[in-house]
Structure formats: C-alpha cells, structure tokens
Amino acid sequence: MKHTRKRLLALLLALSMCLSTLSASAWATEADGEEAASVPSVTSTDTILDTGNCGDELTWTLYSDYELTISGTGDMTDWDEASEVPWYSYCSYITSVTIPDGVTSIGAEAFAYCESLTSVTIPSSVTSIGKYAFEYCTGLTSVTIPSSVTSIGNGAFRSCESLTSVAVPDSVTSIGSGAFSDCTDLETVTIGSGVTSIGSYVFSNCQSLTAITVDEENTAYVSVDGILFNTAQTTLVCYPAGKSGEYTIPSTVTAIGDYAFSYCAGLTAVTIPDGVTSIG
Q: Which of 104, 109, 144 is nearest to 127 (CA)?
C-alpha cells in the first residue's frame, strides 16, 4: 500500500511539472509574438539618414537611397553659401529630390553641387527660383519650370553641363545674370512672352547653343536669326556661343550688351556698325 501511494504521489508531481513547463512555454511564445507584432517591417528605402528644417514650415528628410524629400508649405530658406545648406555634406550623392505642392520658393544655393541629380520637377506652387539654386548640378539633364514661377535668380542653373533644353514660361518676368551660363550641352532655349528683364551673360559659354527663341508676343525682347535683341533692336543682348562664321551687326544697334559675344569660339569675324556707342 505504501509503495502504491509513493508511486501515485510521484506521478502527480511529474504531471504538475509538465503542466507548469507547458504554461511557461505558451506564455513565452505569446509574449514573443506580441513583441514581434509591435516591430514594424522596415525596408532599406525607409531608413532615414538625416532630417531637419529648411524653412519656417518646411522640413527635409534624406533616405538611405539618397532620395531627398521636402515636406510642408511655404518658402524655403535662402542660404548665403552652399556649405550652409543642411544636406550639403550629402549633396554629391543625392539622386532625386521630391518637392511637394505647397512649397512656394526654391531657396538660394538649395541644391547646388548635387552632381548626381539627373532631373527635378518643380511644383506649380513655386513662384521663385533662388540664386545658384541648382548651380553645378552637372548630371541634371532636364528641368520643368512651371507657369507659376515669376523669377529665376542669378546663376540659378549655372554649370548644369548636361542640361540640353530650357523653356522659360510666360509667367517669368526676370532672368538673373548668368542664370544658365556654362551649360555647355544646352542646345535649345525658349523665352516666354512675359520676360521683361534679362541679366548679363545669361547664356555665356553655352557652347552647344546655336539659337535663342523668343515668344512673338514678348514686348521687351526679340530673336533675329537666333540672336537675342531688345524689341527695338538697338541692343544686342546675346549672340549664341554655338553659332559660327562671320556676323554683321544690324545698323539699328547702338549698344552691345555685357558678355554678348563671350566664348563664341566659332565666330570668325564681326562687323560693327558706326552707330554703336556702347560695348559691354
């Protein structure tokens, strides 16, 4: 009888230990499951490298694939130097930029030296492109300037060596000095009807540019044989650097603008009329 009782007690004890082990295992599995469920899946493109502010109501985020995203509304900060831009240390690696509708300006120096940037779409909410905003974006092959933009700052697209064409919309009233200078692959330029002010050396050293087109309704500028003049044709503003051969300046011209013939390597001779009193 004693042996039977001992065996029964031993059996009950073993059963109790098994149940305890199973309960602990189930609890641990459930806890692990809850912990796993609380951790979201993260893809490589979701990994944030850096983030910060770039305007009173604008923020920026750079992801691990070097996509830069601007978020918010309002004006972007104007920086005095490219090195002051918060993403400057990454700029040579940035491959794309997303600018949302609601951003009203592209800040000065904002994307200067973003050499790996190949294209950019500027939203229709932007009214101004700051000075040197895309300077030395040497990989930039295309840019769309929306009809909301009214001004393009000095050197805004300077040294965008891969840019092949530019269409300045009718909404733009001013183009700053050197805005498209040193764009050596630039072949076609169309200036809209609203432009009333063009700075000096805007298309200087655009070695592939053979003609500048101006909208017929423009009241301030005109294109004659691809050469840019003021409407009265009293000032020769720009002779495209890609044109070659000899050229005789029209007799109506009294002034030659600053850097009007700069980097015209194919130009073999120029005849200047007697009425010219000013050469920039």
A: 104
